[in-house]
Prior knowledge:
422 residues; alpha+beta; Cytochrome Bc1 Complex, Chain A, domain 1; 2 domains; seven-stranded mixed β-sheet; five-stranded mixed β-sheet; 16 helices; 44% helix; 20% strand; globular
Amino acid sequence: MIFYHPLLNESLYKETLDNGFKIYVLPKKGYMKTHAFFSTEYGSLYNKFEKDGKSYEMPLGIAHFLEHKIFEDEGENTFDKFADLGASVNAFTNHFATCYTFSTVDNVEECISELLSFVCELKLSDESVEKEKDVIVQELKMYDDQPQWRAFMNMLKGLYHEHPIQFDIGGTESSVRSVTKDQLETCYNKFYTPDRMFFFLIGDVDVDQIVSIIKKNLCRNFLSRPSAPKIVLPDEPNHVVRDFHEEDFEMPMPIFYMGIKDRVFYSDTKARLKKGLISKVLSDMIFGKSSAFFEKHYESGLINQSFSCDFSYGRTFGYTAVSAETRQPKLLKEKISDEIDYMKAHGLSRDDFERIRKKMIGRHLSSFNSTKYIANTFVNYYMKGIELFDYLEILENITFDEVEDRFLEHFDLQYSTVSIVK
């Protein structure tokens, strides 16, 4: 199957095997570097699941723990093996996925073989699991010592009652300490399955050759694994947990976060992407670096260049986050509220809408000169159930009326929380 986008002049090749495993290749003629992702739809949100009539509840952070153990090949150094091939390798876990990736200019076939080899086989011992706990706990503590991170996590905890988005991707110290070898093996066997995994590669390559190499290196044990379980997510009420939280921390300037909770969700992926893009346009219109709000309060000294506003979302959550370093966080809260009230009374600017929409289109088009950007964007969208080429089509067809409706629907501060670390 081939997807072609005429404006981008790009083709994406897709092949789905009988067991559900998907292979994607995007050829980029004339580009030196090749990027590849071998990924599973298994992230930090998926701790509760059902399979064959049995319910499972795993410790927070177990997907991230499992990534550590897969990446750390027992007795061998994964970094060294790829370095010997002239490649760099890495792995990461987010809310939706765990990804293993390499980039290289040479030895593409050998890198594919190596990547598939170490991800498709789990090697665990009780001793190595116990040893890894200290490593991950230190990683958690490192983040917890960062005031920006504390303010952000306190904002999420203020927004969400039940949804696991409120927890650190790595879990908590107690949840990490509770992880067992058997639990890791269970999660690996349940989620590292063909129907939940895919391989994406971009570079100056021959598509048929790459697909053949991937198929040749997929081990029989992996290909025969049964389908993944059903994810269970809790029902999340619309109202927030608290509207304000303040915490003391030794630091030169207070950190401010305001979160506005989304309450509208769509099962249709294109509708979900459209909502996300409209919300991002809105964020830029009201609080972006070119907005009247930013210019006014930057000149007054209330905010600095750290000020930002963005909308984050998934299938079952969404929120706008406004953040800043500011010496007057409570005054900033008032000014944000005043700006939203002013916009509701006087309306949004159609000129601002057109300017920002065109800016987003232009930025996206120019970003397709970067293979790394394309690879990361593909994976990010895939985990949200979105096709890579849907972005431009939907962004080009967003209307000003839809943005106005979304503004009134989403920017309601009774569903907001403020987190300050001072």
